[in-house]
Every structure is written in structure tokens, then in C-alpha cells.
Fold this protein.
Amino acid sequence: MTFISLSDPSNRLLQSIHDNSDVTTHVERINAPSARFALMDEMWVERGDKSDWDLLHDLHYKAEKLPLGPHFWKLTLHGETIGVLVTALPKGMLRERHKVFPNLKPGAGETRLTNTNRYYWINDNLRVVSRFVVDTMYRGIGAGYRMMNLTSRLEGLPFMEIQSSMSKFNTFGQSAGFRFVRPLNANKFEAVMKFFRLNFTANPQDFEAIVSEVALKTPAEQERILNLCRDFYLRNSALENTSVSGRENSARRVAAMDLRTTVKGIQAIGLGSPMYGIWKCPDPLGSLPDRLPLSAFDRQGPNEKLKV
């Protein structure tokens, strides 16, 4: 078998030539340029506002909800918004973060002062990618991870976090330069698994099977199971138990939930295991302009200082 390498980038030859039945010559092109979306040089990452989110939010599965302390960033093409990324204030306590920053983990002898200063440090040094959507016309061209990296730089803080279940299946976070820790089970994993196994025969992760199982029961039994689910969700949901609207409002809200919504909520409490990623900004504070072309991502590695 003979190998011939062609390093001339202008040579488009990439094929197998069968000389005869005994010898195969493989002609290989080296340093071939990769395909690139032509309009990328005309796309810009810059500060946006809620109107940009409103324009594209229906494409996001968390369409109606916004996080705490949102900052809006947009990707534009010829003045039109084609992508929106929303960053937010980070969670105060996060087990996965403690893997990266072990000194932030609470320990013995904690005081109100140390707890307060921990939160000050987190808010002064971290933001989190909370919502991200790109117009369907511009997906698959590499715009997402490029925008995520450039937005993380433009935020101007030392670190950007992301928690994403999709990072198990799509490497956009890794392509943007984020480093991920090994996924951990949710805090309520064991409690949720026990609840489902005590009350259902269906697989706890099979949402439709659980709902179908309940549909086969008598109306009285359906109501009993729904109340069980509502009670479990209310007692174990961090979202409901930390709601600024108060416990009574949370109870009224949960009492109005139907079976499908309640089961989904319980699954989210215990079965979700989003991957935690962290990105460290290599750019000095205040060194970047207010906006960047999307193509700026390609001038250096995702974890290297930006070449403006």
C-alpha cells in the first residue's frame, strides 16, 4: 500500500486510486481549508435588551421565564437580531462549583460574615449562561459556540459558568472553551426515585408511561395520585420553597397544577443532571470594545487572549 500526501491547499484531489488488485494508492490532501459560512464576517456580537429576547424567545424551551439579574446579548446580521444569549447572576451554592473552587464550599465555623463575603465574591467574579437561542436559519454554522465565547469575554468578569443538560449530547460548550466537571446526581435523586417506585410501576424517567398509567385508574384514584404528586413537589421543589411570593402563593400555584405539569416538575427536581462548565477569561478587564465581529473567535484559541 502506497501513501501519497499532497500539501498544496489548492489541490482538490482526495480519492483512492486502485492501481491493480494487489496495490492500492491513497492520495491524501493535507491542510485542507474547512468550510466556513461566508456571512460570518458580517455578524456582530453586542449588547442587547429584552426586546431582542422577546423577538426570539419562542424558540427556547423556557420561553416565558427570565433568570435573576439578566444581561441580554445579541448576534446581529445587517442590523437584524439572529441570536440572543442571556446571562444571569449565579447560584449561591452549587456542588459542581465546589469541585472547581473548593475554598468556596461551606465548612465548620462558618459565620454570617463569611457567608456574606462568599456571596459577594461569587457575584463579583461569576456570571452564568442562562438562556441561549439562535434563529433556525443560522444553526449548524458554528455561530452558537462562537457567540458564547465572545459574550463571555464581553461580560468582563473573570469567570463564566454554564449548566446544561444538552452539553452531554452537543459539544457547543466545549467548542466555546468551557471545561466541564463530571455530572453529579441531583440532591433529590434518591427521594424522587423512591417516590416514583412507591407510587408507579412505570420507569421513573418515562414521562408518558407514568401519565398513561394514571389515566387507566379510576377518577378517585387519579385525584389521590395527583394530590400525592402535588404534595411531594411542593415539599421538595427548591423553586417553590425559595419563591419571593411566599409559601402561601406557592401552595396555591401548585394546587392548580395538572398531573402532567406536576410529574414533569418532580422529574426535574431529581432526575435532571445538567453538566457544569466553567470558562476563565484571559482578557484584561476593560481591554475589549463594546462589540465584536463573530469572526474574532477564529483569531486565537478559545482560552487565549483575544487579538483585537
Summary: The two ends are 47 Å apart (CA to CA). The longest strand covers residues 80-88. Confidence is low (pLDDT under 50) at residues 1-21, 23-27. Residues 189-270 form one domain.
